[in-house]
Specification:
The chain is mainly α. Helix content is 90%, strand content 0%. The chain is built from three helices and no strands.
């Protein structure tokens, strides 16, 4: 084989190897990029989920606290009305407490 054919085959082999290496590199880059993207997405999702959960927890806690405060206020009013001799049915209607709850308040 003449030297110029050997040189040509070497050049072609080098070009093929370069193209194959480029293709492999692109596939590897895409694969690694997907993995990195997935990792980042999961981290962001976890952060957003935690923040949303925290907000919902605070809101739920505030709601429960307000509800408890209203209930305690209704009990205070019911006790005062009981002390004034107001009928249990009227206290129940005014306070939102059941007659049973009011009767429990009147027991010493």
């Amino acid at each position: 084989m003449p030297p110029y054919e050997i040189a040509e085959r070497i050049r072609e082999a080098a070009e093929e190897a370069k193209a194959e290496g480029l293709e492999r590199g692109i596939r590897r880059g895409i694969r690694e990029g997907k993995i990195d993207g997935l990792r980042e997405g999961m981290e962001q999702g976890i952060e957003q989920g935690m923040e949303k959960g925290k907000e919902e927890g605070l809101r739920e806690g505030e709601d429960k606290g307000l509800e408890r405060g209203r209930k305690e206020r209704s009990i205070e009013i019911a006790k005062a009305l009981l002390g004034e001799g107001v009928a249990i049915a009227i206290i129940s209607k005014s306070s939102g407490l059941s007659e049973g709850e009011i009767l429990e308040l009147s027991v010493p």
